[in-house]
Amino acid sequence: MPVVRGKNIDPLFTAEQIRARNLELAQDILAGPCDDLLVISILKGSFIFAADLIRALHDVGLAPEVEFITLSSYGTGTVSQGVRVIKDIDSDVKGRNVLLIDDILESGRTLLFARELMLERGASNVTIAVLLDKKNKRKEDFEADYVGFDCPDYFVVGYGMDVAYAFRELPFVGVVTGDA
Length: 180
Ligand code: IMP
Ligand code: MG
Fold this sequence. Notes:
single chain; alpha/beta; Rossmann fold; 6-stranded mixed beta sheet; 4-stranded antiparallel beta sheet; binds inosinic acid; binds magnesium ion
């Protein structure tokens, strides 16, 4: 099992599995509404997935415009939870086909908020791509259009995802199982 900075990390999805799946996702995206596509990566967690997915989009012949938005959840536990924009995109989404990219779909609150925001701003179509789907954790009636992998209810790290700001740089998705 890989040991990274004193922690055992059990790989869940390997770099090779992710690479192959990204190409399949790109082919699925190509078959959907992708004319004049505007891709919006939701920071921070999706930056590596988005970087790889847009290159897979290139490989299937698409040339998307790329934007970034930083969203943050607030409120925990018993406090009602919401999502807010920390840093916004620069482009106008009016009349555009928008593809939102995120790392994990969990409660659905982040992506529901982001999709509503883009539709309110006049996007003609909004689709959602996520690397991982934790279906059992859903709190909203929400599904993604393109899902990399169904994910068990573990807290995962790597490939852009962190625990306490660590492990984003790992080339695979894994679960921290304890001290090495
Ligand atoms: P939700 O769908 O609004 O609950 O948002 C899910 C977000 O929570 C993801 O975009 C991640 O930023 C974060 N998140 C959820 N589960 C994990 C995990 O296992 N590892 C790292 N971040 C996670
Ligand atoms: Mg996130």
